[in-house]
Amino acid sequence: MLELKNINFKRDNKVILKDINLILEDNKFYCITGPNGSGKSTLAKIIMGLVTPDSGKIYYNGKDITSLSVDKRAKLGIGFAFQTPITFKGLTVYDILRIATNKEVTKKDACDILSKVGLCAKEYIDRELNNSLSGGELKRIEIATVIARHPDVSVFDEPEAGIDLWSFKYLTGIFKELGTKAKGTTIVISHQERILSIADAIILLEAGTIKEIGTKATMLKGMLNSDCNAGGYHE
Q: Would the pTM of this model clear 0.90, i.e. be above it?
């Protein structure tokens, strides 16, 4: 279980997050959504340890991890996929899968992992992680590295950003599988209705605060019909 208590964060004297209190249970699929600038990505980075809150505490299975670094959180079982995937000059897809799993990965293992995100291992296993890959390809490869690690907590920051419709089809399939066969906590930052509609719970942020938490049945209709739609809820 992941718990955030009284999380506050400012940047350049501007309040980004204010009094965030959340309990994210095991075996649940959560979507954090809200208008642009509501603090969604900052909250994801705080969970992973990429950003340190000005005040408040983060607990993972009862342990205070507020001051733990990214790599220490990763070792505890927290995985993160960036909104904009990182490229690594000289590293191949095969290399990054081995690094992600921290164990030897056979070609068959790699094929199984990549097939989950709609990529053919034969075509991608020896490809270098550079600009020759499209944004959608890089996004799917990064998601594959998170899935390969089997983290207890998986955080995906706007996984649909900058990808094509074909890749989006695979994304929704992946998250639907995570939602129905979850063995840990999955947290997706998104404003896409097709992703929101498969979540166990939706957390709505506005102006850095939690406005509402509820099931998709109670949340979706209200959000789609509200002024928040200007922030980008779409199919």
A: no
